Amino acid sequence: MSEVTELARSEAARHEVSYELDLGSDLPPLNIDGGQIQQALLNLLWNAVHALNVRAADPKRVHIRTRVTPEQQIEIDVCDNGPGIPAAIATRLFEPFFTTKEQGTGLGLAMSRTIAEAHGGTLSYRANTPAGACFIMRLPATD
């Protein structure tokens, strides 16, 4: 997580985004490919930072939180206070090649979900209140 943290801090600073990290204590171990999970999380972080360039939020903020769920999964939330996602397109977010960005490929969220699922986990979206988007990755803890 430290490499992701450093890259995220650098990208956030470059875009004048406040980056908040809230790591849960006593997280159980995970049996994962660290490089793949890192790539999935970086996709989520970059999406959040870039979304904040669309909306003049003040301050621009990305919040990352980890915790253990009651189902003994590790949950990683990446939330921003950007423009959010219109309900009309929220159901298509994880479709390959679907994008709302002029320069986007539409592969980042699809790939991130595939990575989470390959590790026995999930990746989902919910609106952030009062504004923005949250992407929630859940991964099973090692027994």
Task: Explain what you see.
- This protein has 143 residues and is of the alpha+beta class.
- It is 33% helix and 24% strand.
- It has helices spanning 2-14, 34-52, 87-90, 108-118; strands at 18-22, 61-68, 73-80, 122-127, 133-140.
- The protein has a five-stranded mixed sheet.
- The protein is globular.
Query: How many domains in all?
Result: 1
Mean pLDDT equals 86
Low-confidence runs of at least 5 consecutive residues: none
What's the CATH class label? Alpha Beta
CATH superfamily: Histidine kinase-like ATPase, C-terminal domain
What is the number of beta strands?
5
Helix proportion range: 25-40%
**CATH third-level topology:** Heat Shock Protein 90
The major pleated sheet works out as: 5 strands, mixed
Outline:
With 143 residues, the chain is an alpha+beta fold.
